[in-house]
């Protein structure tokens, strides 16, 4: 075996990513001599010992840093943050210099699923999040995905499953899934498994035990749990699964109707409000976050069209100009006062 | 773990007590994750502040699927990567030192595991920038090759090369110590 790949093979073995063929190569090499055996154990030992250990911790004046944090947190008035507001702003925003830019690598999966027979999971190692009547809740996941859970719904996470991002749902939810080809995002309903394959789309079910999936952009695979039949949907397509799949049809309804309360703002930062407006209407809004990110907005925009909402924002924040294009709305200028 | 759940609950209810407990438990770890990546103590502390500020601001809608610890560790790593990106810090790449430049050491006069840990930290610190980042994303963040490639905007092949190189450099530098410890069976008490 070429010595060049030795370290890589050992690393693959240590991280559990080694193939059968590679494992055989490595084992043969180790068995070749006592020196090889020792070398293997040295690399292994270095790997094990290079995790962060107590002794590696950086010396920090923790009390001083805590005071610093409290000062900062209080300046921002923590109480203001207490209002239940859904935050779906992209986590990489800090790298966008002055304007929000459509992040092409983010997959959007809109899932509206209504389910009756599916109770919260009783399994150990799961995490169940629930919403009550009239409550819309959002969750931001470590991987960059976010989930908007409509009222009276339960969402179950399975943190112990590492090979995929699996979630089961009882009720209605909208998913914004960050791309990760090595960890597929799978949503389980009583009769379907919905798997994110490509970019962005929306899914909805409106009757009990019936799953409806409609795609905003990109590609989604819907698989029937009993029987294992599956269909793949792309942009603008919709399918209903009850006992069997309906024919695939074109869909026009790609907005988030039914998420009442989603656009109710109460001293909400504009950055948050805009993300929700974008999500609701499936459009990208480009605006100057330098001027407006910290502005606050209060009001109920439920039932209004995008044009009506933008007209209100234009007056409130003295926006100079608003251009509506196909999928993008461009806002120029503006001020918080 | 039960304690942690309690603190997380407190945090979600807006009780600074919860934040304080998590801060005390993990602030140094969060800073260390960042420090290992960029070797800059001041920036590491700033990033630590940011991580906990965000935890506080998002407390009532945050959803942590794994442990709070791995959540914070990942947050520190992501913020550090963003910092590197934003600052356009140039990762040393061209004319990088070769494995041979790091040489083995002849000084094998040492006892005890404390010193070995120190030697390892030191050796990691001295890896070339890109090499070190790739190694740490695998070690501290348990990212796959693909995830590392995406995070650093490099090819999977490059990730493999850098992993291989990092381990080779570390092995060359540390082999005399480690081999000695292995012989005496000391290392297994480290964990």
Strand order in the largest sheet of chain A = 3-4-7-1-10-11-14-15
Strand proportion of chain B, as a percent range, falls in under 5%
Assign the CATH class of the largest domain in chain B.
Answer: Mainly Alpha
Approximate helicity band of chain A:
10-25%
Question: Which parts of chain B are unreliable, with pLDDT below 50 for 5 consecutive residues or more?
Answer: 100-111, 184-191
Low-confidence stretches of chain A: 75-122, 198-202
Return the structural class of chain B. mainly alpha
**What sort of overall outline of chain A do the alpha carbons produce when their principal axes are compared?**
extended
What is the number of domains of chain A? Answer: 3
**Number of strand segments of chain A:** 20
CATH superfamily heading of the largest domain in chain B = Winged helix-like DNA-binding domain superfamily/Winged helix DNA-binding domain
Beta strands of chain B, count: 0
CATH architecture of the largest domain in chain B: Orthogonal Bundle
- How many helix segments of chain B? 9
**What fraction of residues of chain A sit in β-strands?**
25-35%
Which fold name fills CATH's third level, the topology of the largest domain in chain A?
Jelly Rolls
Average pLDDT reading of chain B: 81
Write up what this structure looks like:
The complex is a heterodimer of chains A (337) and B (191). With 337 residues, chain A is an alpha+beta fold. Chain A has three domains: 3-54, no CATH class; 93-250, Sandwich (Jelly Rolls); 263-332, 3-Layer(bab) Sandwich (Phage tail protein beta-alpha-beta fold). Chain A is built from eight helices and 20 strands. With 191 residues, chain B is mainly alpha-helical. Chain B has two domains: 2-86, Rna Polymerase Sigma Factor, Chain: A; 99-189, Arc Repressor Mutant, subunit A (Orthogonal Bundle), CATH 1.10.10. Chain B is 71% helix and 0% strand. Chain B has nine helices and no strands. In chain B, α1 (2-12) crosses α2 and α2 (16-38) packs antiparallel against α3. Chain B is globular. Chains A and B meet through α1, α3, α4 and β3 of A and α2, α3, α4, α6 and α8 of B.
């Amino acid at each position: 075996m070429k010595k060049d790949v030795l370290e890589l093979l050992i690393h693959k073995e240590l991280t559990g990513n080694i193939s059968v063929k590679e494992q055989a190569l490595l084992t043969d090499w180790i068995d070749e001599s006592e020196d090889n055996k020792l070398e293997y154990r040295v690399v292994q030992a270095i790997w094990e010992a290079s995790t962060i250990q107590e002794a590696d911790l950086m010396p920090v004046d923790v009390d001083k840093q805590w005071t610093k944090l409290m000062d900062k947190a209080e300046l921002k008035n923590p109480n203001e943050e207490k209002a239940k507001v859904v935050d779906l702003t992209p986590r990489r925003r800090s790298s966008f210099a002055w304007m929000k830019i459509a992040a092409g690598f983010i997959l959007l999966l809109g899932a509206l699923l209504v389910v009756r027979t599916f109770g919260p999971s009783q399994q150990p190692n799961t995490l169940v999040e629930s919403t009550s009547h009239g409550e819309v809740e959002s969750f931001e996941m470590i991987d960059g995905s976010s989930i908007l859970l409509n009222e009276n719904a339960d969402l179950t996470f399975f943190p112990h499953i590492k090979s995929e991002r699996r979630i089961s749902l009882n009720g209605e939810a909208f998913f914004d899934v960050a791309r990760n080809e090595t960890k597929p995002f799978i949503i389980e309903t009583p009769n379907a498994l919905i798997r994110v394959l490509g970019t962005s789309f929306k899914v909805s079910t409106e009757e009990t035990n019936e799953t409806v999936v409609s795609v905003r952009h990109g590609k989604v695979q819907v698989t029937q749990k009993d029987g294992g039949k599956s269909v793949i949907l792309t942009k603008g397509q919709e399918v209903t699964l009850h006992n069997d799949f309906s024919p695939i049809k074109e869909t026009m309804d790609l907005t988030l109707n039914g998420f009442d309360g989603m656009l109710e703002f109460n001293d909400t930062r504009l950055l948050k409000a805009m993300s929700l407006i974008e999500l609701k209407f499936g459009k990208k809004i480009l605006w100057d976050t330098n001027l407006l990110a910290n502005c606050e907005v209060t009001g109920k925009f439920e039932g209004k069209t995008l044009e009506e909402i933008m007209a209100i924002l234009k007056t409130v924040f003295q926006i100079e100009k608003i251009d509506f294009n196909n999928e993008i709305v461009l806002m120029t200028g503006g001020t918080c006062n | 773990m039960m304690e942690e759940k309690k603190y997380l609950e407190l945090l979600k209810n807006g009780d600074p007590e919860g934040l304080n407990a998590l801060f005390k438990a993990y602030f140094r770890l969060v800073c260390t994750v960042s420090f290992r990546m960029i070797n800059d103590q001041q920036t590491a502390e700033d990033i630590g502040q940011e991580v906990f500020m965000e935890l506080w601001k998002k407390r009532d809608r945050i959803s942590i699927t794994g442990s709070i610890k791995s959540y914070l560790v990942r947050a520190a790593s992501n913020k550090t990567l963003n910092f590197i990106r934003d600052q356009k810090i140039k990762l040393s790449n061209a004319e990088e030192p070769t494995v041979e430049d790091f040489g083995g050491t002849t000084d094998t006069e040492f006892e005890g595991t404390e010193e070995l840990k120190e030697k390892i930290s030191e050796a990691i610190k001295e890896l070339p920038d890109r090499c070190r980042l790739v190694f740490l994303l695998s070690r501290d963040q348990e990212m796959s090759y693909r995830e590392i490639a995406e995070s650093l905007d490099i090819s999977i092949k490059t990730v493999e090369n850098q992993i291989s190189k990092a381990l080779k450099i570390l092995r060359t530098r540390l082999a005399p110590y480690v081999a000695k410890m292995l012989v005496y069976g000391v290392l297994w008490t480290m964990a």
